[in-house]
Design brief:
361 residues; Rossmann fold; OB fold (Dihydrolipoamide Acetyltransferase, E2P); six-stranded mixed beta sheet; five-stranded antiparallel beta sheet; 23% helix; 36% strand; elongated
Length: 361
C-alpha cells in the first residue's frame, strides 16, 4: 500500500481550476517531486496534502486514512518553506525544539532529539545562535532539522532552495539527498527547476494547468517524454515537424519536409501516416565541418545561427535547409574560450538512428 495516495483531487478558485482531477501515489521512503511552471497547481496540491487548503472533491490518504478534514497540526506531516519560517526571537535549538514542545514531549527527550537533529544537518555548535546570525544555507538547514526532528511520516518541501544562490543551491541538493537517505522519511518536493528535479528525485510528476502530464523516473521523463509539453519543459530539446512513413517495433521512418528521411527509435502505438515531431536532445547531435565524412544515417547540412558558451560546453543553434533549428552540444576540451565554429559557418549535423523520439500531435 502507498504511504500517500491522492485520488481524483480537484481544487477550484471561482471559475479557475488550480488542480484538475489529479491522482498520484507516493511510496514510503520515496523522494517524489511535483515539477511544473508557475501556476501549474503544484503548490496548491502540496498545501492540500499539508492541510492548509481543502480539495473541492477527491481524497488524500496517508497510510490508508483519509486526511481531508484533519487539521494540519494533527497530521504526521511537516512543511519546509522557501522563506525558512524561523522564529527570529528564538535560538536555533529552540526553533528546532518548537514542534516537540507542541507535541508535549518531555524536556530530556526534546534535548536529545534537538542535539541529534543539529548533528544531522552539521550545525552541532550553532544551537545558541539566532536566525539573523546565520547564512542562508544555515537557515535552510535549521528549517530542515525542524521539519525532521520528530520524524514525520511525510516531509513537504515547497521550493526550499529557491532563495539560495546557484552554488549554494547545488550544495544543498546534495545535503537533501543525504538527509533523505539517512532519515528514511518520505519527501514530497515542489520545484519549477527542471535540473533540480532530475538530480534529486526517485520519481517526478510533471504538472501543467492543473493536470499531471507524466509521472516517471527522471531518466524516463528526460529520455522518453510523453508529449511536446514535457519534452519542451524538461531541459533543452529540438522539435522538428515530421510524418511517420514506416512504423516497426525497432524503428520509425519519418519524412521531414525539404529534408527527406529520418530514422528514429520505435514507439508503441505509432502508425504510418501519423503527424507529429522528432524531438532530439543537443547532446545526441554531432556537429562537424561540412567536409568531414558522415558515418551516421541521419546527417544534414546547416548554418550556425548562434551559439551559447557556458564553460564546459558550447551549445550551437544550427539552421538546417528546411528552415528548422536544431541544437548541438560540443564539449570544450581546450582551455580558455574554445570556439570551434562561428555564427554563419556551414556545418554538418548528424545523429544516430536510435536517437531522438517521435511525439504525436
Amino acid at each position: 500500500m502507498a504511504l500517500l495516495e491522492i485520488r481524483n483531487v480537484t481544487r477550484r478558485f471561482g471559475s479557475y481550476t488550480a488542480v484538475n482531477n489529479v491522482s498520484i501515489t507516493v511510496a514510503a521512503g520515496e523522494f517524489f517531486t511535483l515539477l511544473g511552471p508557475s501556476g501549474c497547481g503544484k503548490t496548491t496540491l502540496l498545501r492540500m496534502i499539508a492541510g492548509f487548503d481543502l480539495p473541492d472533491s477527491g481524497q488524500i490518504l496517508l497510510d490508508g486514512k483519509d486526511m481531508v478534514g484533519t487539521p494540519p497540526e494533527k497530521r504526521p506531516v511537516h512543511t519546509v518553506f522557501q522563506t525558512y519560517a524561523l522564529f527570529p526571537h528564538m535560538t536555533v535549538a529552540d526553533n528546532i525544539a518548537f514542534p516537540l514542545k507542541m507535541a508535549g514531549k518531555r524536556p530530556g527527550e526534546i534535548r536529545t532529539k534537538v542535539e541529534n537533529a543539529l548533528g544531522s544537518v552539521r550545525l552541532s555548535n550553532f544551537g545558541n545562535r539566532f536566525p539573523h546570525e546565520l547564512s542562508g544555507g544555515q537557515k535552510q538547514r535549521v528549517a530542515f532539522a525542524r521539519g525532521l526532528v520528530n520524524r514525520p511520516r511525510l516531509l513537504l518541501l515547497d521550493e526550499p532552495l529557491g532563495a539560495l544562490d546557484a552554488k549554494l543551491r547545488e550544495e544543498m541538493q546534495i545535503e537533501l539527498i543525504n538527509l533523505q537517505k539517512e532519515m528514511g522519511v518520505t519527501f514530497v518536493f515542489v520545484t519549477h527547476a527542471q535540473n533540480e528535479a532530475l538530480a534529486l528525485s526517485h520519481r517526478i510528476a510533471v504538472m501543467n494547468h492543473g493536470n499531471v502530464e507524466q509521472i516517471d523516473e527522471p531518466s524516463k521523463i528526460y529520455g522518453f517524454p510523453i508529449n511536446r509539453f514535457v519534452a519542451d519543459f524538461i531541459g533543452k530539446i529540438s522539435i522538428i515537424s515530421a510524418q511517420v512513413v514506416e512504423a516497426a517495433p525497432s524503428h520509425l521512418k519519418l519524412h521531414v519536409p525539404e529534408l527527406g528521411e529520418i530514422l528514429t527509435i520505435g514507439k508503441e502505438g505509432v502508425k504510418a501516416g501519423d503527424q507529429g515531431a522528432l524531438a532530439i536532445r543537443p547532446e545526441q547531435v554531432r556537429i562537424t565541418h561540412p567536409s568531414e565524412e558522415q558515418r551516421l544515417k541521419n546527417h544534414f547540412l546547416g548554418k550556425v545561427h548562434d551559439f551559447l558558451y557556458v564553460g564546459d560546453v558550447t551549445t550551437y543553434i544550427v539552421e538546417i535547409s528546411n528552415g528548422a533549428y536544431i541544437e548541438a552540444l560540443l564539449p570544450n576540451s581546450s582551455p580558455g574560450r574554445a570556439k570551434f565554429f562561428e555564427a554563419g559557418d556551414m556545418v554538418g549535423v548528424s545523429w544516430r538512428h536510435d536517437a531522438g523520439i517521435f511525439l504525436n500531435d
